Structure formats: C-alpha cells, structure tokens
Amino acid sequence: MTSTVPSVTEHPSAPFPWPRPPIDPPAEYQWLRQNAPVTRVEIFGGEYAWLVTRYDDVRSILSDPRVSADSRNPGYPRFGAPPEPEDQRLFLRMDGAEHEIFRNLLAKNFTLTAMKKIRPALQELVDTTIDAMLATPEGQTDFVKAVALPIPSTVLSWILGVHAEDRAFFNKAADEALMANDLTNPDAMGRAIAAMNDLRGYIRKIANERAALDDPGDDIIGQLVAAERAGTITMMDVENSGFLLIIAGHDTTTNMTALGMYTLLQHPEQWAQMQENPALVRNAVEELLRYLTVVHLVILRSSTEDIEIGGVTIPAGEAIIPLNLSANRDDAHFPGADALDIHRKARDHFAFGYGVHQCIGQALARLELQIIFETLARRVPTLKLAAPPEELQFKVWSGINGVFSLPVTW
Ligand code: HEM
C-alpha cells in the first residue's frame, strides 16, 4: 500500500539525517513536532521513512506490537547499507521469541544486585584512572583518551570475561571500532572495520576455549557457551551477542561520559552544585542522558500493519524512525526541554529507548556515569576545558553523538 500523506519536501528539504549541532538537536525536529509530528521524508540512500518526533508518539510506536525491529523486513530503514549476513544478525534487530531468548539469557548480568557486586571494583577503576590522569606531567590531557574510553572498555572486558593479559588489545580494538561512526574519515572507517573483525575473532577464540572446558565459567561468555551446550543458542549466537555487547556498551558510554563532562563544564553553576551536594549526581546523570541523548539515530523500525498515529496512517511495510532525541526535547513532556536543569525529574527520558529493546545495559551505564561524575566532582573540582569550545570537533554525522577529543586541565 502506498502512502496517503504527501511527503514533506519544502521543509526540511535535504534527505534525513540532518547534521546535529554539537549538543542540541537539528532545528528541523522542533519544526516537525509543531507542524508535522509524524511525517514521511526521504532518507540518505534514496529510501523513505516516517519520522516520529513527539514524546507521546515515540512511546506509542516503541510499544506497538505492529512495529518490528527486524532488519530483514523490506521496509526497514537501511540508509543505503547492504543487509548484514544472515548468520551475523544481532538481537538488537530481532523480534518476539527470537529476541527474548537473548534478553532472558543476559538479563541477570545487569540487575541492581549485579551492579551492587561490581560497584567496589568500578570505584577502584575510576580512582586509578583519575590518578593516572592527574599524574600527567603536562598537567593537561585529552579527557576522551584518559577517562571516557578506558573505563567502559575495561568494564566490558570484566563482564564478558576477557583475559587480563589481552585487555590492552581489547581496549585498543574496541576504541578503533568506534571510528566506524565517523562517516567523514574513510581511513578510520577502514581501521574500524578491521578492528570489528578482530573483536569478533577474539570473542570466537575465547568462546571456543570455554567450550573445551568442563565448566565454561560464570562471566557472560561462559553463560552463553553454557546456553549453547544446553541447545538454546548456537556458537555463532555466542559470538554475535558478545560482539553486540561490546559495540552497544562501549561507544555509548564513552561518548556520554565525554559529552556529559563537556556539558557540565559549560554549565559551571550546575557543576558547582554537584560538587557541593554529591546526592545530586544521580539526578544530574538522568538529566544529562535526556538533554544529550547521545544514541540518537540507532532506533530503527518498520511497520508490519497499517498504524494510525498523530493524525496519519503509516502503511504496512514502511520504515519508521522514532526520534528519541526529539522526544527528549519535547516541551509538552519536559517543560523548557532545551535547557539543562540537573534538578529536573527526567528519569522517564528515552535516552535508553523504550519497550522491549530498551537498553539492557542501562543499570551499568548509569552506575559508570554516576561514579565517574561523583568522583570527578569530589577529586578534581578545578577541572576545566583546555581549548576553546569552537575548536572542538563533534560527531555531527554519527548515529551516536560525541566529541573526538576533549582537552582538559585542572
Ligand atoms: C550511556 C550509555 C548507553 C546508552 C545511551 C544506550 C542506549 C541504548 C538505546 C537507545 C538502545 C535501544 C535501541 C533500540 O531500541 O533499537 C540500546 C539497546 C541496547 N544496549 Fe544500550 N546504551 C548504553 C549503554 C549500554 C551498555 C553499557 C550496554 C552493555 C554492556 C548496552 C547494551 C545494549 C544492548 C545489548 C542493546 C540491545 C537491546 C535489545 O535489543 O534488546 N548499552 N541502548
């Protein structure tokens, strides 16, 4: 069935996505929320997709059983990319019972009880990372390299079960893989693809080692290998799930740490309040997650039936892009949404998505961010930018927003 609603071509006219100003959403989002909250636009790669921009509509789409995350659907928004090989499918892009198998297998690693167990080691990691930063002889460093990158990749190496002696390789490959989000840099893209293959190969190697043991171990790779042994999943599923956890858990938390720090330094009065009252940190992290919505072009869906929403009908089999960044800046839900306010009650934001695919690692991400910002506020209250903001390079074309480097001093 073809669309009954004319596409919006006058405004915005360029194919979606539009470059993101460093911190705020593209200006088009507000226009769309006000004038065409559910609208069909041309997207990069010559396809069309329905953009959903209001908070209530995004929530409704993400909890609608007629909406699919399966990347094999003909209407799925691919932005011109070829379909991934069938045996490399990630559970992020699966529906129903198939998707549930992985959620059920992995959920216990991200409960509040699991977070309580990991907290002391995480605090120690943050402290030693900050010690190393403070020991930099120049008294100045790149915050991304010194803090934002190593903490999430080290934590992932613990929970997955990477050998201690392989951590340096793992952290480097995980960092290089992040460059796949920089569409503007073909060299980095090539290195990123090589790094992703290295990571897959490494996960495969440790999975095979575990499979040869009587007890495959209690970390995530061990648990997945045990599930393979029980006949629930295949060895390829073990590799795909380990790989998904790395790409979903690293880039996201790294960029959120770096952009969160940048944003706090740009709001010194709120940063000072966090230093005076550490109890504010939890709330501040939720507000930063909402305000920045770093993972802003990753939630991709398609309709399996006609869906009436926001006064229009999305026909079956068409691409849908629920814009969580737009929803998180919707004044109808978050009054004064374009302002950062660490006192705001923002926990119902969509920075982690919504519905069955809502981020499985959110408790871990929250804990990492809370410990990092609380420790920096306590130990390095003099932290400041060591470069003018206009010289910083932000990831304006990436599905996951961030800053390439963040020079700081203290
Ligand atoms: C600040 C950090 C993070 C942000 C902003 C974030 C954001 C998101 C979002 C928006 C989704 C939903 C995607 C969709 O609906 O299509 C998602 C899913 C996911 N995230 Fe995160 N994430 C973060 C950290 C993590 C961490 C630390 C892990 C694991 C170690 C993780 C693992 C995953 C996985 C496996 C999925 C797919 C879940 C599913 O399809 O059922 N994420 N994340």
Give the topology, please.
Blueprint (H helix, E strand, L loop, with lengths): L27 H8 L2 E6 L3 E6 L2 H8 L4 E2 L27 H11 L5 H23 L5 E3 H6 L1 H11 L6 H12 L7 H26 L8 H10 L5 H15 L1 H16 L1 H9 L4 H12 L8 E3 L3 E3 L2 E3 L4 E4 L1 H5 L33 H18 L4 E2 L21 E3 L1
Parallel strand pairs: 2-8
Antiparallel strand pairs: 1-2, 3-5, 4-10, 5-8, 6-7, 9-10
Helix pairs in contact: 4-15, 6-7, 6-10, 7-8, 8-9, 8-10, 9-10, 11-13, 11-15, 13-15
The structure holds protoporphyrin IX containing FE.
Organism: Rhodococcus globerulus
Protein name: Cytochrome P450
InterPro entries: Cyt_P450, Cyt_P450_B, Cyt_P450_CS, Cyt_P450_sf
Looking at the chains present, what oligomeric state does this protein adopt? single chain
Bound molecules: protoporphyrin IX containing FE
What portion of the residues fall into strands of 2 or more residues? 5-15%
Cα radius of gyration in angstroms: 21 Å
Which descriptor suits the 3D outline? globular
Distance between the termini: 60 Å
- Determine the structural class based on helices, strands and strand pairing: alpha+beta
Give a description of the structure.
Residues 1-21 are annotated as: Disordered. Keywords: Heme, Iron, Metal-binding, Monooxygenase, Oxidoreductase. Belongs to the cytochrome P450 family. This is Cytochrome P450. The chain is α+β, with helices and mostly antiparallel strands and 410 residues long. 46% of the residues lie in helices and 9% in strands. Strand 1 and strand 2 form a beta hairpin. Helix 8 (186-211) crosses helix 10 (235-249) and helix 13 (281-292) crosses helix 15. The termini are far apart. Protoporphyrin IX containing FE is lined by residues 69, 91-92, 103, 156, 244-245, 248-249, 252-253, 256, 294-295, 298-299, 351-353, 357, 359-361, 364-365.
